[in-house]
Target: Bifunctional protein FolD
Amino acid sequence: MTARLIDGKAFAAALRDRVATAAAAFTQAAGRQPGLAVVLVGEDPASSVYVRSKGKATLAAGMASFEHRLPADTTQETLVALVDRLNADPAVDGILVQLPLPRHIDERAVIARVDPDKDVDGFHPLNAGRLATGLDALVPCTPLGCLMLLRDVHPHLAGLEAVVIGRSNIVGKPMAALLLQESCTVTTVHSRTRDVMAHVRMADIVVAAVGIPGFVQPEWIKPGATVIDVGINRVEGGLVGDVDPRVAEVAGAITPVPGGVGPMTIAVLLRNTVVAASRRAG
Ligand code: GUN
Model:
């Protein structure tokens, strides 16, 4: 058996179209476009590429893009002052501070400074708490994109066994919270888990977000399971996921890398920006 490939690229393109329609309706009603501000500190090449694609996608969806590129030696005070300005700017509905930040900057303090109603990354502790307690929240883009793909494969997620590999604040933790909200039975495995395979073997759904190339092995996978590969690892010869490609011979459905989860992240970011704009206007 070979797994069905989940076409994240096509799904993301359809989502971007729906977002563009919603953005046009907002513009018509509010007399201004939804606006997304993206802040990049330093010149990390990968981050630079992401920020450029976010700006392009924002404009393509009919929204206003505000890009702030600051030098690597920017102080905490300068960065916080910029966040304060963006919080107060009525033309800005969404604020994204690209991570990772340079080491001398207190990342948590910066994240906590963003107005929770403009926190389109969903990283603010208030949004994390809202998600964990089932309140209306802005939800981190990558896990929400994974959930959208999973809902497409499994219209009924309730009761399914889900294993999330990785416990980061950006993907693993919010992914587990989302799957729990969908009434899955959720297990998070991580670097200190004693027997990762024993857990993964039982899963109907596996979400891999560890950042280790080819980590998930075919013999771990229950035949027919759905596998979501969040990994984008740069290796010699290109980009590879966290899932060994041979997993496709066992799984029922799988996201490719590239073209799976990756394109969903920006599409959901645009969606979160329109949601934030509508909530702020309403
Ligand atoms: N760095 C890697 N992924 C992300 C993300 O989703 N948001 C931000 N702000 N930075 C990132």
